[in-house]
Amino acid sequence: MKTIYFIVLLFLSVIVFAQDRLSFIKNDEIKEEVQKSVEYLNKTNAISAEIKSRVIFITFDFDDIFDESQKKYLGINYSTYLPTEYSVLNSKGEFMTDSQNNILYYNYSQNIVFVFFKASRYLDLEQMKSLSHQISINKKNLMKTEFFKYEKGNEVTLNTVENFISLEKQNGKFIPVRVNTFDLKTFVEVWYGVDVDEIPVSQESIKSQIKKDL
Fold first, then answer.
1. What is the pLDDT of residues 123-149, one digit of tens each?
2. Between residues 84 and 101, which one has the greater pLDDT?
3. Is the separation of the CB atoms in 43 and 186 below 8 Å?
4. Crossing angle for the helix pair 184-192 and 203-213, nearest 10 degrees?
């Protein structure tokens, strides 16, 4: 009985922590996707515990939030090194970059850093700054190479990781429209709520399962 009670308390404490650390996000739909991105990272077995014990960056890209048809998009990707190419970790354990880059860094935990690109309108910047101050990133936990596959940039483009989750807002909710993920099984479980433990984990079988649940 005590064990069950402890598990429930632990589960509730995790939820409260996540909600508190994301309270600076003013848009509920965006907050939900950010929370899923953390859940996906914590749940996946495609990344070893050793890598997870270091610092992993989750980037939220709002650069193309509006296209010509006025559709809203959100891009998510994961990396271990590339965001450090255009930032500096100061003595307080926080990442600093040129304001012209339109990039904001947020220390979600000691091992997860959010990178927001052109997202200011959706964030309470003062609260975000205050919450980020509560956690200091240890320089020793930073990786000096990129764990994830990436494409090298050139004179006009930056190095870019190949993994991405592209979401489009439809009927008040963000829906995945393009995905290149390192763990398709866990992605489906987190974003679609589909349990794939009992079915063959292949592209086609998962796609058919998703269609049934939509």
1. 999 999 999 999 999 999 999 999 999
2. 84
3. yes
4. 0
pLDDT for the residue numbered 51: 97
Helix (H, G, I), strand (E, B) or coil at 112: strand
Side-chain half-sphere exposure of 74, counting CA atoms within 13 A:
23
In sequence order, what DSSP letters do the residues of 16-85 get, joined into one string? HHHHHHTTTB--HHHHHHHHHHHHHHHH-SSS-HHHHTS-EEEEEE-TTSB-TT--BEEEEEEESSGGGG
The structure tokens 């690109």 sit at 117
Task: Give the strands of the sheet with 112-117, arranged side by side.
Answer: 103-107, 112-117, 56-61, 73-79, 164-170, 173-180
Predicted TM-score (pTM) of the model is 0.82
Q: Please say whether the dihedral angle defined by the alpha carbons of residues 79, 175, 121 and 38, taken in this order, is positive or negative.
A: negative
Q: What confidence tier does 12 reach under pLDDT thresholds 50, 70, 90?
A: very low
CA 7 to chain centre: 26
Q: Any residues with CB less than 8 A from the CB of 101 and at least 6 apart, and which? A: 86
